[in-house]
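Run log, item B.
One chain of 241 residues. Sequence copied directly from the ordering sheet:
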Amino acid sequence: MFRVNNRKFDEIRPIQITRNYIKYAEGSTLMEMGDTKIVCTASVEDKAPLFLRGTKKGWISAEYSMIPRANQLRNVRDSMKGKINGRASEIQRLIGRALRAVVDLEEIGDRTIWIDCDVLQADGGTRTSAIIGSFIALYDALNYLKAEGQIQSIPIKDYLGAISVGIVDGEMLLDLNFDEDSRAQVDLNMVMTEKGEIVEIQGTAEGRPFSKRNLQELIKLGEYGIQMVIAKEKEILKDIC
């Protein structure tokens, strides 16, 4: 099967992560995965949500949106519609869950770290790319708190990676771009730790069901891709790890 730039079936798109992309945020990245581009920021607020007040435990919350021309056709801003669309709401909950899974929230203290993901250009894999970019931004924000003497150490328990896999025209592919995703018979988004522990798997079939064997093969392919993602994260963070 022909893929853009002659990618192999098990090859991820090039990843480029620019740290400290936003001047004022405690942590920020420009996350690029192929032609998908997302700005991710991590902002520290010195108070926890109401439901955690008095517990001395912190929280990580995420918001996700696309600029109007991130896609081939212009989207209407959520502010004009008066509500967040269901897809964005689902994705921002996923990002928050993923990051909280690898952070010791008690070590954050009475704080909230707000993750904002704004998609500048969408070519498939925006939710998985947002998780990768947010992980780096979060790491930098926590390192900032450590440098300021507000926490003793960076409370990240494990590296976190995310990737998409799918079946397109009968072939299993890793890291789908928009064209591949739009034609996929099966589409999975996976989030895992470096230890191989699963944080979340979102999967669906289009047109007809798929077998347990297919699922196992897709998970194996996704795990391989996540190992490559985490290797890139380690390279990016080598100055503070």
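Observations after the first pass:
- The mean pLDDT is 94.
- The CA atoms of residues 9 and 173 lie 5 Å apart.
Flagged for discussion on Thursday.
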